[in-house]
Amino acid sequence: MKVNILKPAVLAAVTVLAACTNEVIESSGNNDLTLGQGEDVIRISLSNTTATRAARPISSSEAKNNVNRLAFRFLTNGHEEVQYITLDGVINEEGQMETEYKVNGNVLELPDTYTGSEIRVKFSGLKEGVYKILVYGYNYTSGTDGEDAFPYDISLHDSEYLLKCENVTTVQEIFAGSNQNGTTDEYVKVNQHDKFTTPPTIKLERQVAGLLAYFKEAPVFVNNTKVAKVTVSSKATITGFYMPAALMPGSQLQPSNNMRGSEYNGIYTDGWAGSTWVNYLTFDMSKATNYNDTHLDNGDYYKFKQYLLADETAEISGLVCNENTLFGSCFLLAFPAYNDFSIKGQCATLNICYWDENGDLILSVPLRSGGSENDALTANSYQYAIKCNNFYSIGTKKTGDNSDGNDNPISIDESTGYDYANVSISSDWENTHELIN
Fold it and tell me: Which of 74, 130, 133, 243 could form an SS bridge with 82, CB 3.0 to 4.6 Å?
């Protein structure tokens, strides 16, 4: 069965449908709905959903999502959260409530049967004035604390219309947007009849980046030293993120403000790039079937029962990989390129690292984005940004089951991989940009 986990970067379009005062939607049955003063309907279309609702790993460079919760927040122009607006639920064309869509406070639960078709979400309690509407989408997995638990502690940023998630260790896929979305209309206006005066549009976009690694020819020895671990690593310490990223202040802000442009919504400080390696994906070579063989020599490769998953990657149903390959994927928090890793860390933004059995670094191989093989480590091709809603792929994995036959794992044998390893950066998870080491 074909495994397609990721779809285009745009998750959802949210359109507010203006209603007339005391408009009555006729319906048959017991769930007739009257839209009176202080009530209105938001029309939402959520695309690219998947059949599964489990918290997903990434199986390929295709873009999908498994969002099953939408949360809504209304803020005043004084940055205060409104408590009097109520999320009522989803109504159909006849004005009847759709019972399979459950409401828990400000959170709408999307049922497993939801296919991405347009839904109309009803709110009540609107009052004359102006509002900022924030909407964010995420996956809830049973077993976590809270009926509709968002995966992180979330707070409202003091001076901006931003939600703040701190102390993030395991990065999950989050979508978010607001009524502004780069337009000149900063607020949604509600008139004296308690109706929206202009139908705003909200587009939810992915607030994190994606990383995929697909390797072959994992060497047993590098620099005459046995390799115990291979990682994809950086020297950036990012502790959380702001959302929606589209509302982030511009790049004129200083690093100490922890914010720098709408594509770099990660939370960081002046000292966020340094000497400590941060491993995004870890491949444990002790799991190779020939790891303990006594006759291994330089030029030999590790072998596996089929392929080896990174420690950070959960099992993926239907995943097909070439024999004796390494496969891993995860999500990343974004950060800009102004902090030169060649100076503070003697590396590129992303790197392939080889470690020995004592946990010491044998070799780090920098990955570059375009440019030339003659570029210095200080060049922009090595010192690139990690942008939210972008996809970074080392090796090619177009579909989870390789049904299109376009799999192309890269060799990480040090002698050959140094010249030919590739990473592609997909802007908005659609277009490809090459990274080469």
Answer: 74
Cis peptide before 244 (omega within 30 of 0): yes
Place of tokens 């064309």: 93
- Contact of 44 with 120, CB cutoff 8 Å: yes
User: Cα-flanking dihedrals φ and ψ of residue 13, to 5°?
Assistant: -115, 130
What gap in Å lies between CA 311 and CA 417, rounded to an integer? 22
| Local structure of 387: helix, strand or coil | coil
The H or E element containing residue 416 is helix 414-420
Is the Cβ–Cβ distance between 274 and 233 less than 8 Å?
A: no
* DSSP codes, 290-359: TTT-TT--TT-B---SSEEE-TTS---TT----TTEEEEEEEE--B-S-S-HHHHTSS-SSEEEEE-TTS
- DSSP three-state, residue 151: coil
Burial class (CB in 10 A: 0-12, 13-18, 19+), 49: buried
Please name the residues in contact with 437: beta carbons below 8 A apart, sequence gap of 6 or more: 348, 352, 365, 366, 367, 368, 417, 418, 419, 421, 423
Measured from the Cβ of residue 397, the count of other Cβ atoms closer than 10 Å reads 26
For the segment 315-369, what is each residue's pLDDT rounded down to a tens digit? Answer: 888 899 999 999 999 999 999 876 678 887 889 999 999 999 999 999 999 998 8
Alpha-carbon dihedral angle through residues 121, 124, 129, 134, given to the nearest 10 degrees: -40
Longest dimension (CA), the chain: 83
Q: Which residue has the tokens 């139908």?
A: 199
Give the global pTM.
0.82
Q: Does residue 397 contact residue 63 with C-beta atoms inside 8 Å?
A: no
Distance CA 41, CA 18 (A): 7
| Tokens of residue 170, six digits | 């395991």
Q: In this structure, what token pair is assigned to residue 128?
A: 């004359």
Decide the pairing of beta strands 410-411 and 209-216.
parallel
Distance from C-alpha of 328 to C-alpha of 130, rounded to nearest angstrom: 46
